[in-house]
Amino acid sequence: MNLLDSPTSDTEAIPRSAVIALSFAAFGSGVSLRVTDPLLPRLAQEFSVSLGNAALVVTAFSIAYGLAQLFFGPMGDRFGKYLVVGWACLACSLTALLCALAPDLPLLLLARMLAGATAAAVIPLSMAWIGDVIVYEQRQPVLARFLIGQIMGLSAGVMFGGFAAEHLGWRTPFFAVAAFFVVIGLVLLSINRRLPIHARLIRRVDGSAWDRMLFEFSQVLAVPWARVVLGTVFLEGMFLYGAFAFIVSHLHLIHSLPLSTAGTVVMLFGFGGLLFALCVTQLVKTLGEVGLTRWGGTLVTLAYLTVAFAPVWWWAVPASFVAGLGFYMLHNTLQINATQMAPERRGAAVSAFASSFFLGQSVGVGLSGLLLAQVGTTGILATGSLGVLLVAWNFSRLRAQRVLPSVSL
């Protein structure tokens, strides 16, 4: 069966461009998410605030992104996931423009909250849509290839943000993001009109939207394994990205590396993820879900500790690559579990997953900002690395004890 055919053989095949377009939307979401990381020292200087206070632009985006998942999951089930992603991309264009035009830090924080809320639909609903149309046994490689867009977006966001901080000004990346989202939003809406009926998967339900939302999420949370997955991804986001947001600042402050160069180094995180996407079939066959989570967390820990205590900056080059590989080994396995933890309400389930992940990020970045003056960027990276190790090994243990459909490729 072709990966882009419906699980039901008598239905019309899905256009190959459908997943490709979603991957480009994920690219834009990734850029929007991480573009402010290397801008933090410049924003602190621009608005005369501490680095910890400047990091609120990351926290504001992540909080809004996480909370908005609770809204978009049921909306995707109700109106069609692909359609909602298309309209969300157009909304992302407007909120990115607001970020670019913000005259002061409070308004920039507000604009970043709106940007996080509008971007919230893109990746979780795309994942849920793929879960709807691709059978479980073939889903992990398709998800991995879809996430190439997000992977490259995260890398491009860090690199572009660092370059803009040095040469273009902090507003330029937001103008570029706004233009990109206009184009991809129109493309998605065009493709949606050509999707076969089974790929739109609209559920007609009665009752108020609020009651439906509460019911959907209560049903997801009633599943014990769902609670394990959601708790794990919350802690993963808290420890991993609570430290990741300060890697560029660490290289800049500790090793006097220009922000543009530091952003380029951290871009290799995405290339580690790209290697995972290209080798996912073999890695799944060799390690399975249990091995992927255990070794993924171990690689992230070793990489973060290397960056934290490296005597020279270039140690961060291989470490960033290894961190990206380890992260996607861990996170993609959590994602595949998320798509199957409540199949009958997959939109709400995957949205709850993404919500937990980004709320974890917001907590992690917020706590790191508060602790920065006491422990420095070195302490932040070391703490994050050990937290990821504990979370990954615990989930690996729990996954080994549970019988779920295995990924056969």
Summarize the structure.
With 409 residues, the protein is mostly helical. The chain is built from 16 helices and no strands. The relative contact order is 0.16.
Which regions are unreliable across 5 or more consecutive residues at pLDDT < 50? 1-11, 405-409
Would you report the number of β strands?
0
Mean pLDDT: 81
Annotated CATH homologous superfamily: MFS general substrate transporter like domains
Portion in helices: over 70%
User: What is the CATH topology assignment?
Assistant: Growth Hormone, Chain: A
What would CATH call the class? Mainly Alpha
Structural class: mainly alpha
Distance between the termini: 12 Å
Q: In the residues, how many domains can be counted?
A: 1
Query: What's the helix count?
Result: 16
Kindly estimate the percentage of residues that lie in beta strands according to DSSP: under 5%
Overall morphology: globular
Major beta sheet, specifics? none
The sequence of SSEs as H and E is: HHHHHHHHHHHHHHHH
Using the 3D structure, state the CATH architecture: Up-down Bundle
Task: Report the C-alpha radius of gyration, rounded.
Answer: 20 Å
Structure description:
This protein is mainly alpha-helical and 409 residues long. The protein has one domain: MFS general substrate transporter like domains (Growth Hormone, Chain: A), CATH 1.20.1250. Helix content is 80%, strand content 0%. The chain contains 16 helices and no strands. Helix 4 packs parallel to helix 6 and helix 5 (81-101) runs antiparallel to helix 10 (172-192). The radius of gyration is 20 Å and the shape is globular.
